[in-house]
Amino acid sequence: MSDEARRETDEAAGMYADTDVNSQNGSQAGSQPAGDGVPATFDTDRFLAGLDAIYEAHEAPTKAEPYLQQAMADAENAGNDAGLLTVLNEIMGFYRSQGRHDENQWIVQRAIELGLRLQLPGSEAWTTTLINAATAMRAAGRYDQAQDLYHQALESAKSTMPAHDRRLAALHNNLSMLYSETGRPTLARHELETALRILETASTDISTDLDAASTHTNLALVLLQETLPGNGTEHHPDPTTEAGDSTQSPAGASDATRPDHVARHTDEADRERGLAEARRHASAALAIYRAGHLEHSAHYASALAGYAQVCFASADFRSSVDAYRHALAVIEECYGTDTDYYRTTAANLHDAQVALDHATPDPATPRVPSRGTATPEPGHQPPHALHTPQHPPMKGMALSRTFWEQCAKPMVERRHPRLRGRVAAGLIGHGSECYGFDDEQSHDHDFGPGCCLWLTDEDYRRFGADLQADYDALPETFMGYGPRESTARAQGPARRVGVFAIGDFFAGITGYRAAPTDDRPHEWLMLDEATLAAATNGEVFADPLGALLSTRQGFKTMPDDVRLSLISKRLGMIAQAGQYNLPRMLKRGDGAAAWLAVNACVEAAASLVFLINTPITAGYMPFYKWRFAALRRLSGRMATRLSDVGARLERILALSSATCFGGAGFGEGGKGSAPAQADVHDLIEGICRDIVAELHRQGLSDADETFLEWQRPYVEAHITSADPVLHSL
């Protein structure tokens, strides 16, 4: 990220500590150590300057990570949450550049959580954080979440960025990459053209504008994707960029699974024009770097690799080899050789060299290098490249995605050309496969080939019946599964797969065609968490119009006042059932009532974990059957708050029989229950202490009382609405 763009973002978040930036006594990562009675501070200016120095010296491979880790610790120790958010944004970019996507997940989650706690929505800093988080998710292949975040960023940018802000161009550039990766090159090209128009207006000298160079490179690659259908290129994040700076495909970007040969394009003139236009954009990018004398920039490697790929597709293998070789040298200089970017570019260079040495294909039969930008993790495939596995079993979500790719999508394109670019597809709703919890036992009901196809209301009125008829004609058996046996409650209007109007689909789950607005909290409170979980789970395989994702995102974004009100209610129930009534029922010898008290306490505590971690990042607690499966999954994620509560709740349940009924052979209230009762009491009180500590950490309370009923007024003081439905008596 450029200094200017980063400074503007940080100032929007209040990210500059009130410290002496000239002091030489702080740590390398920008901290001012605590002295006698002097609190530690964190200087964001100095942190960013130090990080820039590391990158400029091409020392990122060895020095960037320890520097960033130290900065994160320094900002935390100084209590500088705004400075910490700056560091997290930089770590997102670094981990992305290293292909360390699993580690990046908790950084993304933590950054979003921190931004919400800092009440950043509506600020430039929030827009930038959303862009960085979306780009990290896209790099990890989590396209559904990435598109959600990009759309949030676009909406946020409407009120936080001027129409010709360079960062807005970067956002359109990033979104184009997602469209390209998910097989929507025309949408990708439109986003890039929008970005270039913004830059042409904003730039003081377009001939040396690096953001424009990045956009030219991406336009070249997406034009290949459009020109050579089924053989286009993938866009992947550039290791050196962040929101507000240039974002482009890194060295060697290409489709990791495409075949080397494709059929001759039916219109040779269009193909030649497309390749010529792609080469024009790729050459324009190189010219900008050369005009600015930036041939040793890491971004230059991406431009070289893009040019090499265009040359390869045009059968100009000599130029392709030369450009890939040059790109490889720049990557080694900037990042070293132990990165996905180096390995993939080396593989693409090999492909180009083989083509030059041993094969001179017909120029009318274009090829592209066979590797993608980053080596996929074992078992990972891009969504547009799924193939029939040779060895089932297969999870329901993967089966559904493959059914869409190989059956439903071709049917739509062949039978309903007017719906091309208008049909959303995926799998959301009721059913274990929508949560990812299905196993072989799940195959006995409501399981099998199928997916959801969603249309706008107008398209559904015009085409819904015909599309449903063609969907019904698709194969009933697929990849060894099927036919699908639907239970009575999963048929008719309650069917789980098939063709739906978007609003009708969500109304069928929640009763609402779209999420209630923030000013109607009573409607939010009528939606239980299991219902919201069913409306927001699953995966979206395609959504060219964005209408499905936008509607689903509305249900994900619970108003914070509602969330705080529910947290207060859960605190009250844990106190009432677990801390107060459970001991009283045990003293009375009423094991059945005590058992119900345990259940109520456990349910409230499990819900609280999801609410504390915020639904937009943690999701909602599903219905009882999958409650602990979801809690275990959430607890296993790094940076989850109250992550060990789930395991302690399971221990409470394991002890509940002996606690409430004395255990086998002792009878209700017998002496055998005493040890179990003591353990359950200690477990509940320990959970309550940790909840209070978490309330303190999130700034929701400063009271030390561990009886959770007394924490409720402190939490409810943060509810901004005066609506009585949000407040306890």
TrEMBL record:
Residues 1-42, 229-276, 357-392 are annotated as: Disordered. Residues 1-10, 257-276 have a biased composition (Basic and acidic residues). InterPro entries: DUF4037 (IPR025117), TPR-like_helical_dom_sf (IPR011990), TPR_rpt (IPR019734). Residues 524-626 form the DUF4037 domain. It holds the Pfam family TPR_12. Residues 20-31 have a biased composition (Polar residues). SMART domains: TPR. This is Tetratricopeptide repeat protein. It comes from Bifidobacterium mongoliense DSM 21395.
